Structures are given as structure tokens and as C-alpha cells.
Amino acid sequence: MPSELTGLEVFQLSSLQLTSIPGIKLPKDRRLGHLVEKVVSGGIKASPHFEMIAENIQLIEEKQTIGELDFLIRDKVTGEVIHLELAYKFYLYDPTISELEIENWIGPNRNDSLIEKLNKLKEKQFPLLFHPIINDRFPELNMESIEQNICLISNLYIPLRQNLNLSEVYLHFIKGFYYYFDEIKSILPAECQYYIPQKTEWGMDPSQNEKWITTTEFMNQLEIIITKGRSPLCWQKSGNEYAEFFVVSWQ
After folding, report:
1. Under 8 Å CB-to-CB from 70, ≥6 apart: which residues?
2. Burial class for 3, CB neighbours closer than 10 Å (0-12, 13-18, 19+)
3. N or C: which end of the chain has fewer CB within 10 A?
4. H or E segment to which residue 216 belongs
5. What are the structural domain ranges in the chain?
């Protein structure tokens, strides 16, 4: 997301200037955020323009972890050091929350939001750079001269059949729609195939998936998930065309 939305300096992954995608072995049984961190870490290390100073820097005080910095990197051309925080998020737009667009982006299960994430970065995450532990660990760095950036990779979903006059800046990040469970029963094409990916698969392109189920099987699985109060991401396949959408357990 750009700076005009986040209110923070934004690091664009395109600035890594990678000529090819580095081969990265991803660990199993890790959270989606950790997998994305691994991919971005590999990109930084393969970049001709940046070098990695340190990553996943834990701040431990009296045997208690009080925080962690994602990356410290250096621009090889300018020598500038950047504290980079990475976030890979899925947000749904609920226009009933606020008159301010930025306050209406929420997590699929309504337990987090875009504005909360940005506030946490500003108020808690970025100030960790100036903790004495970091100063002691990197005495060669002038903390006051380090630029702090966010790389917020956002996947946005909007409600179906609502006339939303969203700011154009959001449109580039919209990946699909979300449905209420009650309405999806009557609109799913019976001839399509479906798949409910695990959270670690959310970053995949649906066209890479090889496991598909019928509409009936999909609805049976979906009802079990919705009953548990979860709002899953779903993939749809129609011939060689693919779509992704959320089905939400809330109204």
C-alpha cells in the first residue's frame, strides 16, 4: 500500500531489482506470515541493490521477549540503512463501521483491522528500533539516521452487489468479493469446481491448485467451517478461469 494510505514510508519490493526469482526452500508447518518473511528475506539477499544486515531481531529482556524487528537492510549505493517491517494481510471492506474508508478494512474473522495494524506499527513496532538492546547489539549504527519503512502486502475484498465509491488508490489491491453464507447458497454455479485452501496456501495462485471438489462437497465443507465461526477463503474453477472469494460467518 502507498504512503498516502499508510501514513508511513513504504518500501516497494520492486526496488530489490531482482533479475530472477531466487530459489527459496520454504519450511513446513509455519504460519503464512513467516512463509512470506522467508520469501522476502530471500529476495533481499539476492538483490544487487540491497544487503541484509540482520533479520528477525528479537528483543529479550529478563528472559522475556518484548518484541522483534523484521529486517535491517542497507542500500548498497547510498549506504542508507533501513528498518523494514513486513506485513502480509487479507482485509474485507465493511462500509457500516465508519465514514472513513481506512477504518472499514477488517480481517475475515473481524479480529483485526488495517487501522489497528498501522497504529501498532507507529506506536509499538517502530519505537523498538530505539530500545537500548538494539543500540547495544548494533553499536556501529546511528539509530537516528535509520529510515523506517513498511512493506504492507494487502489483499482486499469487497462485498458483492454494493455500490461502493472507494478511493482509486484501493482498487489496485482488490482481489475479489466476499459473500454472506446465506446468500452464497443460491448463487454458486453448479458446474464449477471449488477448493477451500489452508491458511498457508492463501498466497498461492488458484491456478496452481490441483485438488478440486464439486459444489455439493464444497457447500458441505463450508457449512462446517461457518458453524465454527470462521470465514474461509475459497477458490473457484470454471474451465481455465479462476476466482477467489471469502465467505463470512458474520452478518
Report:
1. 37, 55, 56, 84, 85, 86
2. exposed
3. C
4. helix 215-227
5. 3-155, 176-248
Say which DSSP state 228 is in: T
- The values of phi and psi at residue 168, to 5°, are -60, -30
Helix, strand, or coil here: 86?
Answer: strand
pLDDT (tens digit per residue) in 12-32: 999 998 887 677 776 666 788
| CB-based contacts of 31, cutoff 8 Å, min separation 6 | 199, 200
Angle, CA 157 vertex, CA 151 and CA 159 arms, to 5°: 155
Helices (H) and strands (E) in the chain, counts: 7, 9
Place of cell 491458511: 199
Q: Is the dihedral of CA 57, 58, 60, 66 positive or negative?
A: positive
The residue behind cell 480481517 is: 107
The C-alpha cell of 91 is what? 482485509
Q: Which grid coordinates are listed for 150? A: 513498511
Quote the CA–CA distance of 226 and 180 in Å, as a whole number: 10
67 and 39 in contact (C-beta within 8 Å)? no
Residue 140, helix vs strand vs coil: coil
